[in-house]
Design brief:
alpha+beta, three-stranded antiparallel beta sheet
């Protein structure tokens, strides 16, 4: 199927119409969209649930179309979405998942990797496998980059004469 350039304004109009309809539904029932991000061995799957409040972990698990297996390193992230994100009227990455959701999923993955590295170290009598910590660090950097955070060292702050958090210079 080929797209004609004249169809672009129609697609935008339909997205705006979807936004308007979803906003009206939200006004009527008070339910907002939430993304449930399921990180699993095959990748990441994002589900959308509508709720008046952020879904609980059990409600998020119920939304999955597969089994949730945290013992295999899987995790869930529950993220607030805007109706703009859902309707496609807000800026999103090319894969359709908003950057803030991608960043939160990466941050959760990084935390899980770090906790697992320390748990493995405890099980090995205190010997830390630094490659596991390095993996957590790399994933944390990806999360910060997706979130648009500037990554600076304390040395950068000292060189620029800026105060560090907590009042230390």
């Amino acid at each position: 199927m080929t797209r004609k350039s004249g169809q672009q304004p129609e697609a935008t109009r339909l997205r705006k119409q979807a936004f308007d309809l979803l906003s009206k539904a939200n006004d009527l029932d008070g339910r907002s969209p939430f993304a449930v991000v399921h990180q699993h061995e095959y990748g990441t799957t994002t589900y959308v649930v509508w709720n008046k409040r952020p879904p609980t972990q059990q409600e998020a698990i119920a939304a999955l179309d597969s089994e949730f297996e945290p013992d295999k390193g899987e995790f869930l992230a529950i993220c607030t979405m805007s109706i703009d994100d859902l309707a496609g009227t807000a800026g999103v990455e090319s894969d359709g998942v908003p950057p803030q959701i991608q960043a939160k999923a990466k941050a959760m993955q990084s935390a899980r990797l770090l906790v697992q590295a320390y748990a493995n170290g405890e099980a090995c009598g205190g010997e830390i496998d630094w490659s596991e910590v390095d993996d957590a660090y790399s994933t944390a950097l990806e999360a910060l980059t997706l979130a648009g955070e500037e990554i600076r060292s304390n040395k950068d702050d000292e060189d620029s004469g800026q105060d560090r958090p907590g009042g230390a210079t």
